[in-house]
Amino acid sequence: MSIEKKRFYFDCDTGIDDAMALGYLLAEKESVEILGIGTVCGNISAQQGAKNTLDLLRLAGQPSVPVAIGENSYLYHDYVCDVQHIHGENGIGDLALALAPSAFHAITESAAELLVRLARENPGKLDIIATGPLTNIAKALQLEPLLPELVGCMTIMGGAALAPGNRTPVAEANIACDPEAAALVFNAMNNIVMVPLDVTMSHTFEEKDKNRLLLSDKPFAKAIGEMLELYIDFYVDTYGRKACALHDPVAAVLAVRGLDACIAPKVKVVIDATPGPGRGQTLCDMRGKYLGYPEPPGANCHVVLSTSQNMADLLMHKLLSVG
Ligand code: BDR
Ligand code: CA
Fold this sequence. Notes:
alpha/beta; binds calcium ion; single chain; 8-stranded mixed β-sheet; globular; 17% strand; two-stranded antiparallel ribbon
């Protein structure tokens, strides 16, 4: 008996750790079907993100997954690329050898249009993974207000519940880039899984992991190893050693494998979209902590605080198998 694959729309700002998340999803091809990918500005422009995604898909031997270029400015303000020191000028670590270009092009629909179409074609069967700013998802909600009823679960990498932020003292980068979009999404949807810095900062690849990828004879794994040279250097000031956080791939793993191995209470999460110092903060109502987190009325989001899954081992195994 064949198991029905989970169907996903993947929204990303490709991005070194987005590339790792993509590799993981492609490696799970026995259980995962990526129906479409949309790119959004964030780590890189939406256009460059689409090129990176298409070229990575070619490298992974799955070149025909539809890729749509999404929003290249945020809901109410312009996009400025300022993370070249983390993700490189091209978003994928300025690989010494640029990836060979894919023969495939981005489709003509926008990312929001693609998401809405896929949701209508697969009512109740499509899950979303979002590893960039939530601008495309907000636009899709504006196009189709029934989107929350059409889709299953939406897993996002973003936010910080009890951990510090990484863009400001309280805000995580994906939410901080477009807090208005995040606020729209969190107000409209009640089946969100938020994979915040609380959990993603606790799962790392070390220098030895990068070296293992570099030794692979598979081009996708080797390319990830090359990208990690820059990414790992950036994190030295954070961790005090050569290691990098596995933000986006941890979100992808939890979207595919579920929350059984996690502490992930369902609570009410509100986004601070005001202009003050709290802008971009994910305000998670954790007041049920001392009662074991009973689900409160109005809860919209599972907040993943930790997982017992060894993410680094799983991701290494999966990335080495791509292509
Ligand atoms: C998030 O911000 C981006 O730089 C990464 O790709 C990840 O999605 C981490 O805060
Ligand atoms: Ca990302």
